[in-house]
Amino acid sequence: MELIQNTADLSAYLAADEAIDHHHPVVRETAARLAASAADSYDYARAAYEFVRDSVPHSQDSGDLRVTWRASDVLGLRTGICYAKAHALAALLRAEDIPTALCYQRLSDGEGGHVMHGLVAVRFHGAWHRQDPRGNKPGVDARFSLNGERLAWIPDPEAGEADCPGLYAAPHPAVLGALRAAPDRPYLWRTLPDAL
User: Fold this and answer.
1) How many of the other CB atoms lie within 10 Å of CB of 112?
2) Across the strands, what pairs with 121?
3) Which of 10, 92, 98, 181 is buried deepest, with most CB atoms within 10 A?
4) d(CA 110, CA 120)
5) Which residues of 127-158 are buried (b: 16+ CB within 10 A; e: fewer)?
6) pLDDT digit string (tens) for 113-166?
7) 135 with 58: CB under 8 angstroms?
8) Which H or E run includes 118?
9) CA 118/CA 105 separation, integer angstroms
10) Residue 13 belongs to a domain with what CATH number?
11) How far is CA 109 from CA 85, 113, 119, 183, in A?
């Protein structure tokens, strides 16, 4: 699948916004701590990925009812669903000048419908590489990789699942709207977008 930037301006994938608030002290402090032990930008990207994947529990897995969407809140409260964790990872990577896009998959929700799943793509060596910071659990073994994808899930086209080729500089409005409107995770689960 060819990944398609939604803007040709690569600097858009380094920008801060309301959700990817990489100028926030919590994001800057976390980035500085991770960068201090990294040998290079690749090592930093891997460390940031593993930090978000492993140190910020997916709220569905942990039973946390809070909804986070701003990167600084995800890192400060240490909770979030896939979209929120993708925002946090994007902020950490952009804080260290690594171009990062948000991207999505359409997956079955287990109840006969579909839901959008959030990922990031990092740009190294002139190409985009998708990464899934969702968090591992039994049956899910995502890993940071620039040599072949190691995502949490591989979409099944026969089930109506699909990889979305778009690389977004900012969270998709459908995703951000659902996160911002949800008072808690059970409400969010009923209002997650099933398409972009």
Assistant:
1) 6
2) 101, 130
3) 92
4) 23
5) ebbbbbbbbeeeeeebebeeeebebbbebeee
6) 999 999 999 999 999 999 999 999 999 999 999 999 999 999 999 999 999 999
7) yes
8) strand 114-124
9) 7
10) 3.10.620.30
11) 19, 5, 17, 21
Structure tokens at 137: 């659990």
The whole-number pLDDT of residue 182 equals 97
Q: Tell me whether residue 196 is in a domain.
A: no
State whether the Cα torsion 151-152-156-162 is positive or negative.
Answer: negative
Parent domain of 129: 4-191
How far is it, in rounded angstroms, from Cα 82 to Cα 86? 6
Domain count, the chain: 1
Question: Do 137 and 116 touch, CB atoms closer than 8 A?
Answer: no
Q: Is residue 47 part of a domain?
A: yes
Quick one: how many helices (H) and strands (E) in the chain?
A: 7, 6
